[in-house]
TrEMBL record:
An example Gene Ontology molecular-function term: GTP binding
Cellular component annotations (GO), alphabetically ordered: microtubule
Role summary: Tubulin is the major constituent of microtubules, a cylinder consisting of laterally associated linear protofilaments composed of alpha- and beta-tubulin heterodimers. Microtubules grow by the addition of GTP-tubulin dimers to the microtubule end, where a stabilizing cap forms. Below the cap, tubulin dimers are in GDP-bound state, owing to GTPase activity of alpha-tubulin.
Protein name as catalogued: Tubulin/FtsZ 2-layer sandwich domain-containing protein
KW Nucleotide-binding (keyword) present: yes
Organism: Zea mays (Maize)
GO biological process annotation, one example: microtubule-based process
Record-linked PANTHER family: TUBULIN (PTHR11588)
Length: 107
């Protein structure tokens, strides 16, 4: 899984509108993202999987073996404001390059 400080700072500045992001803000983004990605590893069940199955099913070309993580909805640490989002809006945000945790073109 690729996480890039430059992308995290861009998310803090552009999306979360933080003027001076701290390491705590970056850690919040990382912890929320990693919690979402690895939550299936915490519990046993027929629908849950391990990292090997995730890699086999998500990566269709053998040379492409790094996970680019997109996360939505993005919220800052102290944010109390929430709004309801549709599945379509969440999907668009998740695949948007502004919500990727690494600097790369996802296309």
């Amino acid at each position: 899984m690729v996480l890039c400080n430059e992308a995290l700072y861009d998310i803090c500045f552009r999306t979360l509108k933080l003027t001076t992001p701290s390491f705590g803000d970056l850690n919040h983004l990382i912890s929320a993202t990693m919690s979402g990605v690895t939550c299936c590893l915490c519990f046993l069940g027929q629908l849950n999987y391990d990292m090997h199955k995730l890699a086999v099913n998500l990566i269709s070309f053998p040379r492409l073996y790094f996970f680019m993580i997109g996360f939505a909805p993005l919220t800052s640490r102290g944010s109390q404001q929430y709004r309801a989002l549709t599945v379509s809006e969440l999907t668009q945000q998740m695949w948007d390059a502004k919500n990727m945790m690494c600097v790369a073109n996802p296309r």
